[in-house]
Specification:
Blueprint: H1 2-19, H2 21-41, E1 49-55, H3 60-70, E2 75-80, H4 84-92, E3 98-102, H5 106-111, E4 118-122, H6 127-147, H7 149-154, H8 173-204, H9 207-211, H10 217-245, H11 255-279, H12 283-299, H13 322-336, H14 340-369
Parallel strand pairs: 1-2, 1-3
Antiparallel strand pairs: 3-4
Helix pairs in contact: 1-2, 1-10, 2-8, 3-6, 8-10, 8-11, 8-12, 8-13, 10-11, 11-12, 11-13, 11-14, 13-14
Domain ABC transmembrane type-2: 134-368
Main location: membrane
GO molecular function: ABC-type transporter activity
Amino acid sequence: MWWTRLKALIVKELLAVLRDPRGRTILIGPPIVQLLVFSYAATLEVRNVDVMLLNRDSGYWGQELVQRIDGSPTFRQVIIAGTPATVRDAIDRQTVTAAIEIGADFSRKIEAGEPADLQVILDGRRSNASQIVSGYITQIVAALSAETPAGIRGGARSVTTVPRNWFNPNLIFQWFMVPNLIASIALLIGLIVTALSIARERELGTFDQLMVSPLRTHEILIGKLIPPMMIGLFHMTVYILAAIFIFGVPLRGSLLLLYGSSLFYLASVAGLGLFISALSMTQQQAILGAFLFMVPAMLLSGFATPIENMPDWLQPVTLINPLRYFLVIVKGIFLKDIPLMEVWHQTWPLCVIAVGTLSAASWLFRRRLE
């Protein structure tokens, strides 16, 4: 009998989401937008940058540096300036990200074996882009320096480093971003769909009917828990297929481990959503509560910036964030083929979070029933 009651509630929840125009919009719109925007546009790479050059040197090495900067595929446009005032105005107006000034004695000092200075002015308002552009310019200058007379003489005594990038040899950005999206889309869909469930019952006036039904409290929670997990698994499957067949991300690990750990991840996310839903009286409050949790969860998960770079007092807060653990699992299974024990080290915190959030939601739900 309990399975019949539970099955009826699961079917009701799925129909409530799929028949609601707003529910269908949430299920279809955000996943497509995230896949297109984040996979192609939200890149941490800095390309198509405009820079300005003020070349006071008429010698060979000054012209060679100008040609190398102009021929770099990183820079979209290299604007030649005539005066320092032009450089200052371009930086002030954010016309360019960086400006390079070559001194009048640049070539002469190089030929004499003396240090030649090069001034690079960066727009500090775009700190991340400026630092990356500075690195690009440094690489070009370093390659030029190795071909100067002093660089050739010291080449025999210099140490050469050859970097090799493991797991992503060509540094393809989609290999990093798309596995992250698999975890984030499950958080988005699972949290919003679950957060709306009880709040929707209150707005439609069916909450009282649910309370007087033969369903027990734990059966109601399970019935509210399973449909978002099913929807989350569906979206994860779509993203996994897109990652493999559209973006060419290699799947080096076990698909079974990925789906097994995702059940605990989705359970923890659904537990958070049920807790938010039990606190909310309207669907608007539920959506606001979901986004109130989701935005910090994305920022504190290591999605874009490593957790180790965060302040020491903030890092313990990330321990209660389920996205933090599942990101490690997804990227590890896709790119590294991490073993079972490593997956388990990241999965058991998800179990703790799921038990804690579902227990809190159950307690709050019972309290609301009293």
